[in-house]
Amino acid sequence: MNILVFVKRVPDTESKIRINPETNAVVEEGLNFVLSPYDEYAMEEALRIREAKGGKVTAVTVGREESLVILRKCLAMGADEAVLIKDYLPEAYDGLRTARVIARFVQKRNPDYGLLLFGKQSVGADNGQVPSMVAEFLGLPQANVVVKLEVEEAAGAAYREIEGAQEKVDFPLPAVISAQKGLNEPRYETLKGIMMAKKKEIPTISIEELGLNPEELAPQIEITGMEMPPARQAGRVVTGPPEETAKQLAGFLHNEAKMI
Amino acid sequence: MILTYLELRDGKIKKASLEALSEGKRKAAELNKQLAAVILGVGKGGLAPEIFAYGASQVYFLENPAFKQYSTQDYAFGLAELAKKINPEIIFFAATALGRDLAPRLAAKLGVSLASDCTKVLVRQGRVEFTRPIFAGKALLSFTLKASPKIATLRPNVFPLAEATAVQGDVIRESVSLPEGLPRGRVAEILEERGGELDVSEADVIISGGRGMKAPENFELLRQLSGLIPHSAVGASRSAVDSGWIGHQHQVGQTGKTVSPNLYLAFGISGAIQHLAGMSSSKVIVAVNKDPDAPIFKVADFGVVGDLFQVIPPLKEELKKVLA
After folding, report:
1. Dist CA B22 CA B51 (whole Å)
2. Most buried one in A34, B34, B100, B144, CB count within 10 A?
3. Which of A12, A91, A126, A163 to mutate to test the interface with B (most CBs of B within 10 A)?
4. Which residues does chain B have within 8 Å of residue A124's beta carbon, measured at their own beta carbons?
5. Nearest Cβ partner for A243 among B131, B133, B314
6. Predicted confidence band of residue B89 (pLDDT cuts 50, 70, 90)
7. Burial (CB count <10 Å: 0-12, 13-18, 19+), residue B185
8. Residue range A48-89, pLDDT digits in tens
């Protein structure tokens, strides 16, 4: 089975985010960029399916030249191929635009696939829109936030996280799946994998080559502001014998905060 | 018109959907529009009075036997047909597991962008501005949507419920015929964990444990506290989850859930940046930690420097007293 895994380059979760108020954008300088954590689960799942059933795993990203680094990581993990769809825009926070690009890429360049795998959201934009939108554009079934996946020749079952429970979704293939933490334990790259990934050529396609018209590529989101969340003030801190502090805490919750 | 999609679980409208309906009511008043609601299912007409009470003047019941089991594609199809017919300016969803799955599919079907997981919706000079946390809450992004309908999912526990009043409205029942032969996914089964316990994203109170909990069995202490406090859920930091002490569905923070409960109680959580991002919008934060320099104290409204294993037992007794 051929599997396409869609990945994104994001600042790591340790990052302190700074904002440029003039451009309403995140300051990239000083940030450490990584493969988005949920995409690692998607990559790992693709590799496991290939190991069990054969086929080919291709990692794909939409982004600027800098995103080659995460494609190399995917290759080092074990992807057979990688493709960079070169975009000229910085982060637009518009899932629809990205989904259009991806759907067109799949139709034009990779029509033979069994699964399209994504992380459930990119860490950062936190939109969680692109998998469902790609599924719609391609007329495919979808299962998002998946913590367990079973794939047969022509169908599959995905267990997805809902509030306080899991939902089992049955679907025919091909399908779109987005990965949640818990789906698997992603492997580390091996030294051999890293060496091979360095030598591998990564083909690049420009967005224009996909034949999308300018209206389809214009973001439909107009950013009006970006700011830091309101800062919290540190409150009262107490020390002392546990019976005393427990009593003070209960008093705070009941009398002051009126929460209990 | 503003349309709100209402999600049902066990035959009842989810609280998060009523919050979205309430925000619909407020925006409808500001924009001088009508408020409508839509439910997918069969024989749900009995819910109409509750929906009118929250301010909707119309409620659409879209019916098809297939709607009994959730299928993203069928639900999106039904909603898209309705949207094309009634042309709402805004469609609100609750940002629940279902809303986050369904809204982007509908948006793509209608060819519009989507505002995900919003925490604020403002009307400025007639324009609707959406605000949503990015980087799990490390920053806030505000934007407008150029196309119509403007579809948004609203984060649970953020938008206050409107006061319910007894009013009347129109019930519009429509049967939907679904396209045949499409490859579609469908929910086959729902597997409830621990008797359907409350999810951290929906709880009014979250009682969270971190590395300081030391062992999986100690989370029982937090479950006992949760048993005392109504509408509470047990949460965890990434290090507790990655140590295998508790399931990842309990994880709060970046790579977990971003939450905004009324009260967040942090036990043995130092306050790593990923964790703080995910819970700093809680209304009240309380922390118990041995380390007086733990970063969690910088965001806590009330902090106890002490050993959680010594603080929890007397705290339980004190809470029993005030809850009695």
Report:
1. 10
2. B100
3. A163
4. 134-135
5. B314
6. very high
7. buried
8. 999 999 999 999 999 999 999 999 999 999 999 999 999 989
